Amino acid sequence: MKTVRQTAKEKLKGYCRVCPVCDGKACAGEVPGMGGIGTGASFRSNIEALKAFRLNMRTLHGAKNPDTTIELFGQQLSTPILGAPITGNPYNMGGALTEVEWSEAAVQGCLQAGTFACTGDGADPAMYDSGLAELKKVQGKGIPFIKPRGQEDILKYLRRAEEAGTAAVGMDVDGAGLITMALKGQPVGPKTKEEMKEIIAATSLPFIVKGIMTVEEAVIAAEAGAAGIVVSNHGGRVLDHTPGAAEVLAEIAAVVKGRLTVFVDGGVRSGTDVLKMLALGADAVLIGRPLVIAAYGAGAEGIALAINTMTNELKQAMILTGCASLEDINMDVLL
Ligand SMILES: Cc1cc2nc3c(=O)[nH]c(=O)nc-3n(C[C@H](O)[C@H](O)[C@H](O)COP(=O)(O)O)c2cc1C
After folding, report:
1. Which of 96, 201, 204, 207 is deepest in the core (most CB within 10 A)?
2. Boundaries of every domain in the chain
3. Tens of pLDDT, residues 96-126
4. Please, are residues 263 and 231 in contact by the beta-carbon 8 Å criterion?
5. What is the residue with the minimal CA distance to atom 29 of ligand 1?
6. What is the DSSP letter of 234?
7. What pTM did the predictor assign?
């Protein structure tokens, strides 16, 4: 990973400093870019919220070879760690990788690690197109996320995901305030429960709502027919001064877990962070910025290496907290 990070530092010059800890401090306000919006407080909250939890160590038990496999929407994955949807290589990362090269690295790298990438959407149609094209090449093994566009547009984007045979499809509803999309003639906005129902009923694919930060909105997603949610503040990139995802996860998961698949993202940097998120009630986690660094450092192999490293750390942390499988992980591992 050291070599990967060194190469990434050169290729991301001017856009990401590849800090020893990716915590949103040096890049506060750098949106577009890799940072968090405004003061960077929401990005930092993600990191601080995770840091606030500590782990209870237990070694007198039989969890000798923990199982990290998970079944998601009928697909067997080797790890509960997925790639988060990320777009905008030209303006967020400086363009040393094209959108197509990034999408290929993300989709292939995640598959190499036995898991799925999510792909994103943006003002330039090339964003959604390149992610979906890569997913199509691998029989849809991944999850495309659509911005909260107009209803008619969303239906068209959904049809294309269905044609690609993706495992599920989602919408980052927290993209609702993106003025850049409106400026480029592709308006986005918040969705009512009725509109969400209409969208979700219009597709045969399991539907995931990304950007949920309150219990009330998790319940709305469930009542609208969603199969899953992503507890997320969009990596702190859309609204300044939000709590961290790990801060609100437990209360949300307590209400909807079992009824919805609960994903979470924001500030997950290690296997112990993954363990904390699962203990707080997540079924699986998404990783954002660390996979950008991995891809800029070594393409698909870099991404596979980063995910495998975190999965190994997770395994080790499961041994040291007495969890033989992901189902064994609960609040007891937290202090
Ligand atoms: C450069 C960049 C671009 C992103 N683009 C998208 C996107 O197109 N769609 C989306 O749903 N989320 C997008 N996100 C948010 C990520 O999916 C994810 O929520 C966030 O990065 C998780 O936090 P982390 O980077 O601290 O792991 C983006 C994040 C970054 C850093």
Report:
1. 207
2. 2-54+61-275+286-324
3. 999 999 999 999 999 999 999 999 999 889 9
4. yes
5. 86
6. G
7. 0.97
